[in-house]
Amino acid sequence: MLKGxxxxxxxxxxxxxxxxxxxxxLLLKKGAEVQVVITPAGKEFITPVTLSALTGKPVVSGFFxxxxxxxxxxxxxxxxxxxxxxxxxTASTIGKMxxxxxxxxxxxxxxxxxxxxxxxxxxxxxxYAHPSTQxxxxxxxxxxNLIIEPATGFLASKLEGKGRMxxxxxxxxxxxxxxxxxNKLSKKKIVITAGPTYEKLDPVRYIGNYSSGxxxxxxxxxxxxxxxxxxxxxxxxxxxxxxxxxKRIDVESADEMYEEAIRSFRDVDGAILCAAVAxxxxxxxxxxxxxxxxxxxxSVELVPNPDIAAALGxxxxxxxxxxxxxxxTNDEEKNALNxxxxxxxxxxxxxxxxxxxxxxxxxxNKITILFPDNSKKVFPLKSKTTVADDIVDEMENLLM
Length: 400
Ligand code: C5P
Prior knowledge:
Elements: E1 6-11, H1 18-29, E2 33-38, H2 42-45, H3 48-55, H4 74-80, E3 83-89, H5 91-99, H6 105-112, E4 117-121, H7 125-129, H8 131-142, E5 146-147, E6 151-154, E7 160-164, H9 168-181, E8 189-194, E9 199-202, E10 205-207, H10 214-225, E11 229-234, E12 246-250, H11 254-265, E13 270-273, E14 280-282, E15 302-304, H12 308-315, E16 321-328, H13 332-342, E17 347-352, E18 364-365, E19 368-370, E20 376-378, E21 382-383, H14 384-399
Parallel strand pairs: 1-2, 1-3, 3-4, 4-5, 8-11, 8-13, 11-12, 13-16, 16-17
Antiparallel strand pairs: 6-7, 9-10, 14-15, 17-19, 18-21, 19-20
Helix pairs in contact: 1-3, 1-9, 4-6, 5-8, 10-14, 11-12
The chain binds cytidine-5'-monophosphate.
């Protein structure tokens, strides 16, 4: 999987930097080409001589080489790499990456990186648990970076807890797992709906819901990283896409989403309908702001929105695959199976509002995938990025 892959290995100032030599060795053994970029603090823990002797390439550390003025282009490295792995990643580097503080070669390279980025944190348990570190890691996750969770065990501080950099063998396993999925969806085109819809009441008000779009965006990134061409039709969300092949179409209302989805569906192989589409919209839109009349009740008449999933289910041709979502509060599986059948879906992803960490706005989700033959796959609570991978695995099986 790693043969011929070009890896930028970022090393920062943690005691775990000694493991970076072994990681370099493993990557080279697997046939990868490795370019080390090290921070000034990283050099305090492992010498560039060791690393350059292993890789056969000068280690990049400063913006230029002092003795001959050779300029090192972080932009070139960003274009050259098939992946960037930052192992070990200290709290400080994680903070700089999350906030764009580009004061060393490693962070500038990170900011120019076009390839997927893997981050293996290494720090003391309290530093790892600190809200600042956790917020920065969440930010990095939201940028589409992959966090290689630290292990729990003995730390250099003689304390015991979560913060040990994951072992090099496991880091390599995670990289291999990632690349094994690459290109599995090449030549496939997938449309994804994401986020909430806003149904206008007047020029300043709408009826909406709490959907953040995180699940749909994670699905779009997962499909794109496997080589699919992705059309992401999204309601109003505060997220951005990373992968260059994702074509993003922003809409506001269910009607707009419906139009775009119907237009796109004709020439795609699959659809993942993740959007929390409003079932109803106001019957009338008030051109002027609706005024408060003291003491009087106000009723808004609602009319149904089009059901995008059901419409695509009707249009579906042989070979096309549609996955839907069901967010339920009661009789979960029964309701989800009902939707699966009614909307002519190929599978449905159930998440229950009764599960902690599942549903809207969280970074995690807990899903069950239900199939038309009543079979099901139950998954544990995972990050939305990993959940997206599980869902795309099913899509891939059906599209093969
Ligand atoms: O019926 P319910 O809204 O629970 O169905 C959920 C599934 O149907 C989701 O996949 C959602 O994206 C899709 N849906 C849709 N258009 C609607 C309502 C739901 O595509 N108007």
